[in-house]
Amino acid sequence: MSGKQSSGEMVQGTLDMLILRSLITGPAHGHTIAHVIEHTSDNVLEVEQGSLYPALHRLEHRGWVTSYWGASENNRKAKFYKLTAAGKKQLTAETARWRSLVSAIGRILGEAAD
Amino acid sequence: MNLKRFFLRSHEDADLKLELESHLQHEIDDNLARGLSPQEARRQAHLKLGNSLVIRDRVWESNRIAWLEDLWRDLRYAMRILARIPSFTFVALLVMALGIGANTAIYSFLDSLLLRSLPVSDPKSLVVVSWHSKPWVRGDDRHFVMQSMSGDVDPDSKLGAVSGNFPYPAFALANDESVFSHVFSYAHAREVRTLSVSIKGHAETASGELVSGDYFNGLEVVPAAGRPIVDDDDRIGAPAVAVLSYAFSEAHFGGPTNAAGQAILINNLPFTVVGVAPPEFFGVDPSMAPDVYLPMHTNVLLGAEIPFGFTADDYLDAHYYWLEIMARLRPGVSMAQAEAKLAPRFAQWVTTTAQDDKERANLPVLFLREGAGGLDTLRRQFSKPLCIDDPGRADPCYCLRQRRQPAARARRIEKKRNRAAPE
Q1: Quick check: B294 and B210 in contact, CB under 8 A?
Q2: Are strands B241-244 and B269-276 parallel, antiparallel or unpaired?
Q3: Cα(A105)–Cα(B227) distance, rounded to whole angstroms?
């Protein structure tokens, strides 16, 4: 498991941002979202269901995503999540915040390394 | 927690359960696609997903936390906004404080008025002597044995007009030892309503009450210090004494023991404080709560100081209705029995005070009322308009009319100045 970071250890709020990001291409159900995050991160990030679903419900509660039941690509019943306008705004804000945070930390670490 | 989840959020939870099952199926599909055997595909999917019940719990938990977080956010937002508009905040807080305060005040007021008994021993055996007559109508050219009064006549839906004020001779009449163990009277007379009390050179305003010699004994009120007013104090020429309320003694003497025995001036007349009433005692009328209790006959002393004041002759006046009478029933004697004993005697006496046939046609009729709640000026004034606890009242408009038509109250007559000219 070394080298993998489980969602339980992620910086707080990061999972929310990643979920929102994964929905930018269109509605998806929980399994796809987890799959996309894991794949896009080259399996560095592992999304536990125990974190994913509370996060999805939290995002829905805040109005950043909406959900509906539909048929999946495997022709199974699945609950799909769709990004809302507020969710898009939130994603933009979170991404900007994250970028500035990373660059700030990067600067510090960079200076320390020098 | 689990119970709550299943009962309150069963629908949402069922939804989540389906969602997790769907996730599991997709995971199995993936595993099958990777070429695993069906059993292995299932096993690995279950392993990866973990316990679905635990996940459902976590979702519910996080929802709850989200709710708390939202509440906290809302509260902080509200505080920020309030801090930004201090004038609005001030007004809002003031309105709320006043509202809460007013409610508390009203409830404690009604509590003492309607619910609590007099703070005396065995209040249930106390009765208030009263009379009723035909209704009083404003502007009516009345012929009535009562020619002047210091007190109130109240309209009553059943009895017509009701009052608790009597002339002094009627007080002696009510003193029947066969039915009452004590008969006492008090008066909130003009002479004592506002007193100037001088304590060691400091003048204070105080409200007073005249009480007969058996007042404290009859109520079985034990003084906090000193002695009560007794029969010996209540006669013309007796040394002038006074009993203070507990609160008054604390405010001006630093406590009841310091007050007892002190010399004071009341309306510039020398009095001796002989005792202090217990802290819970407010007199027999919750609306009055006098500061100073004085023997009934000091009325003559104090009356001599003011124009048209009370004189010794007024004790004999059968047409001046001013004092209120309370009595304690002997054990085993009912209020009805006492009334049956007293009413005819009063009727006989009051007939002799009538001056013509018109007066004889409408004589006051004596009756007894329960005295447990105290003599009830305020109760009469407030409890009827409020219509509390009287579902059996036949006339629903009665309360309103009572409030709008203080006809009899307007007849409140002050002493002889206003006395009707003799026929």
Answers
A1: yes
A2: parallel
A3: 86
Alpha carbon separation from B372 to B26, B118, B284 (Å, rounded)? 81, 6, 9
Structure tokens at B257: 């023991």
Q: Inter-chain contact B20–A53, Cβ cutoff 8 Å?
A: yes
> Scanning the structure block, which residue is given the tokens 């939870």?
B13
Tell me the pLDDT band of B402, cut-offs 50, 70 and 90: very low
Residue in B81, B191, B102 with CA at minimum distance from that of residue B415: B191
Pairing of strands B126-133, B320-321: unpaired
Residue B343 amino acid letter: A
Q: Is the per-residue pLDDT at B400 higher than 50?
A: no
Return the sign of the alpha-carbon dihedral for residues B26, B27, B29, B34: positive
Given CB atoms, is A12 within the 8 Å cutoff of chain B? no
What are the chain A neighbours of B48 within 8 Å (beta carbons)? 49
The complex's ipTM?
Answer: 0.82
- Contact between B146 and B362 (Cβ < 8 Å): no
Could you say which residues from 55 to 114 on chain A have a Cβ atom under 8 Å away from some Cβ of chain B?
55, 57-58, 61-62, 72, 74, 76-79
Contact between chains at B19 and A31 (C-beta distance less than 8 A) = no
Half-sphere exposure in the Cβ direction for B172 (13 Å, CA): 8
